[in-house]
């Protein structure tokens, strides 16, 4: 079997942050058990994907800074509010700690400490599930539900103030639908092999 030699392909010439990027692709050694590597997408797709990601990321950073600066959180942090919000959307207002962690950008150990602080303030309660003595269930308390609703109403108003003026109603619907598609598509896209 002939082993292909290393090839150089310009798969990305995106002007991201004013820099030009060129990637070198080295095909992996062929084996009888691994499928052939996927063909790189055309340069325009790579550039457009990079530009779309940068726009999405910059918009999120800008909005998150504005939300954090708002005086609506009282004694909650935005991450603590996110825990209360996530629990408010869960069946019976409770989730296993590992399931709560899946939707958050935070290490599980940090989330565990945050849940302990929220429990000490009476906003959540922890328990051990009947079917898993090593697991932890986190439940929203009535006070936690009240605080989530109160803060959530104020937060929705600030979201409307900052997001709605920038886009027409049909554009907001399209943005919502596109971002949902992008998020859901990630389950179908294989992870990159670790090096």
Automatic annotation (TrEMBL):
Record GO biological process: response to stress
Gene Ontology MF term list: DNA binding; DNA-binding transcription factor activity
InterPro entries: HTH_MarR-typ, MarR/SlyA-like, WH-like_DNA-bd_sf, WH_DNA-bd_sf
Protein keywords: DNA-binding
Domain HTH marR-type: start-end pairs: 49-184
Pro residues bias (residue ranges): 27-41
One Pfam family from the record: MarR_2
Region annotation (Disordered) ranges: 1-43
Presence of keyword Transport: no
Top-level taxon of origin: Bacteria
Signal peptide location: none
Protein name: DNA-binding transcriptional regulator, MarR family
